[in-house]
Design a protein that fits this description.
Layout: H1 2-43, H2 51-80, H3 87-117, H4 122-154, H5 160-180, H6 185-192
Length: 193
Amino acid sequence: MSTIVQKVFLSYKNFSKRHLTVLNSIQTGILLGSSDLVAQKFVEKRENIDFYRSLQFIGIGALFVGPYSSVFFKKLTLFYETSKHSKKSVVLQKVLLDQFVFAPILVAGVVFGKNALQGKNRDEIRLEFQDKYLEIIKNNYVVWPFLKIVKYNYVPMYYHVLYSQSFAFFWNIYVTWKINCDINEENWKKVRL
């Protein structure tokens, strides 16, 4: 049994060395779409699953989140590969860049992409940002920094996106639910005026 597992991990590692962005895009699309299905069924407790909504998240994951994550993590790793700084300093710098450059762009892209795919106009998308973006980012800063410290200390680069997406499955349940929640009534009043 362990030989099979070793072969699977070796195959994964070899494929990721040759096609990292493609692999990460596929697995990210699947994970983001799966997270949305779980959010609909178990968080929102919907009787009828909106598969089109989940397909939208698959597209956002495969066409934006996966490629963006792959490129960002690869460049981050290569930039610090020859660093003369201590490991602690490098990890801290990576976490800060991850949380204050990568995360805000990622969350903005997902919020914008989902609302654009739903056919919302510019004012509605702006309202969605005002209502949801800051709350998602604040919660991001509660959940992710510790996980990123572990990642940058112990996880090889070829597994960075897989590691992050393993936790992101649960995080994405929250994000897909939050993005699809009704907008705060007070913010709707601003648009109607």
